[in-house]
């Protein structure tokens, strides 16, 4: 269960980890504007724009993984299948981030669908 909880925690922390490349891109585009960071983020292009989108998508991923993970925790004993699925989700999300940052669009989409499928699979284990 520890690995399962670590995966849940990592997914919840991932948006803040994904902020690092975004902050670097913002710094390179004239300095980090701490007074109006969202306006600066919206003006980014290329890598910076992709880093911004990847950052926000991490928050979105929480909305479909966390409920599935929490349902598993609440309704059943965490088994090996749950741990493998949670670890696979984290791997998909990490690959997803790198694909977003480096503009590998097709693999990024595959990783998104795989992550979504993993969340559905977690729910399916409860049926």
From TrEMBL:
Entry keywords, A to Z: Membrane, Signal, Transmembrane, Transmembrane helix
Location (main, coarse): membrane
The keyword Disulfide bond is annotated on this UniProt entry: no
Presence of keyword Membrane: yes
Record-linked InterPro entries: MAPEG-like_dom_sf, Membr-assoc_MAPEG
Protein's UniProt name: MAPEG family protein
Compartments where found: Membrane
């Amino acid at each position: 269960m520890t690995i399962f909880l670590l995966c849940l925690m990592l997914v919840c922390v991932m948006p803040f980890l994904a902020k690092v490349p975004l902050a670097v891109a913002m710094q390179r585009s004239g300095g980090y504007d701490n007074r109006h960071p969202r306006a600066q983020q919206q003006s980014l292009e290329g890598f910076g724009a992709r880093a911004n989108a990847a950052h926000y998508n991490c928050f979105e991923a929480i909305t479909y993984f966390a409920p599935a993970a929490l349902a598993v925790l609440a309704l059943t004993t965490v088994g090996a299948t749950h741990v493998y699925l949670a670890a696979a989700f984290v791997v998909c999300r990490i690959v997803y981030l790198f694909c977003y940052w480096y503009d590998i669009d097709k693999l990024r989409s595959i990783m998104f669908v795989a992550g979504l499928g993993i969340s559905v699979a977690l729910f399916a284990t409860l049926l």
